[in-house]
Design goal:
Blueprint lengths: L13 H16 L2 H22 L8 H15 L1 H13 L6 H7 L3 H13 L20 H4 L30
Helix pairs in contact: 2-3, 2-4, 3-4
Pfam family, one: FAD-SLDH
Protein name: Membrane bound FAD containing D-sorbitol dehydrogenase
InterPro entries: FAD-SLDH_ssu, TAT_signal
Length: about 170
């Protein structure tokens, strides 16, 4: 415990000032056209992935979307991926995608894409196995609300002592 008074919330610390300067410089030097292009290019991937996984994917998934796109492009090339996105995004809302993807010979790629989103890792055969790319951010953790990624804290110290209560359970009493 220190007798040094805590800085006033109105007075930024030296660390906060330096972080602000660094952030401002990084933003000023970033090519906004490149950011806009990446956003435009990844929107079809996020829309198709949302339909395939059944989980809403907003713009907060852009970074992971870039990892997914690069991984799938390395495995299959760009043309089949662009075709997959066109077929999925062009299908009528609520339609069964499996027969449509089979007809276009895209079902295995769609299944791999869905698996990558849910597991956050590639499924390669061989001695080395797959590669974890974004395990903690994989969709499996959103679809299984009763658990969390290992080594990710679930609450304050001792939270595990209390019985599990689904989100919003306190509101129903």
């Amino acid at each position: 415990m220190s007798d040094t008074p805590a800085p006033s919330p109105l007075t930024p610390s030296r660390r906060e000032v330096l972080a602000g300067i660094a952030g401002t410089a990084a933003l000023a030097l970033s090519p906004l056209d490149a950011v806009a292009a990446a956003l435009k290019d990844l929107k079809p991937l996020l829309a198709a992935s949302q339909r395939l996984t059944g989980i809403p994917l907003d713009l907060s998934y852009l970074d992971i979307g870039q990892i997914v796109w690069n991984t799938m492009r390395r495995s299959h090339g760009e043309a089949p991926l662009v075709r997959l996105l066109a077929v999925v995004n062009g299908a009528p809302e609520g339609s069964d995608l499996a027969p449509l993807l089979r007809r276009h010979d895209l079902l295995p790629i769609a299944q791999e894409l869905t698996s990558l989103w849910y597991t956050g890792s590639t499924a390669r055969k061989g001695r080395n196995g797959g590669t974890a790319l974004f395990y903690n951010d994989a969709l499996m953790w959103r679809s299984c609300a009763f658990t969390k990624p290992p080594a990710t804290c679930g609450g304050p110290f001792g939270y595990w002592e209390n019985p599990y209560a689904p989100a919003g359970a306190d509101d129903r009493i």
